[in-house]
Design brief:
The protein is an alpha+beta fold. Helices cover 30% and strands 30% of the residues. Strand 2 and strand 3 form a beta hairpin. The longest helix is centred in the C-terminal third of the chain and has 18 residues. The protein is elongated, with a radius of gyration of 17 Å. The protein starts with a strand and ends in a 7-residue tail after the last helix.
Length: 90
């Protein structure tokens, strides 16, 4: 299974968001805040960020740091269980 990374794509207007389908899977679109959450393959993140940023309706593209947060929490949980101090399930 390929690892996927989320991208937050901030746009000027919502109509051309459908064009983002060719770059990855659109997971969520916020009408009020004018952004979309898009999932792409981990190997292609840098290429996709450059390609999406070059579109004329895109203001900003930010990669998600969710996978880093989960990894940090799992490391902390392992460290606490090794020490025997785990009193709260993470």
């Amino acid at each position: 299974m390929k690892k996927r990374v989320g991208l937050a794509v901030w746009v000027d207007h919502l109509r051309p968001i459908r064009h983002l389908r060719r770059y990855g899977t659109i997971h969520y679109v916020s009408n009020r805040c004018k952004y979309a959450v898009l999932y792409v393959d981990e190997e292609q993140v840098d290429h996709m960020v450059r390609a999406i940023s070059s579109l004329n309706f895109v203001r900003k593209v930010e990669p998600s740091h969710y996978h880093e947060i989960v990894e940090n929490l799992l490391k902390k949980k392992e460290k606490l269980t090794d020490e025997g101090n785990l009193s709260v399930n993470l």
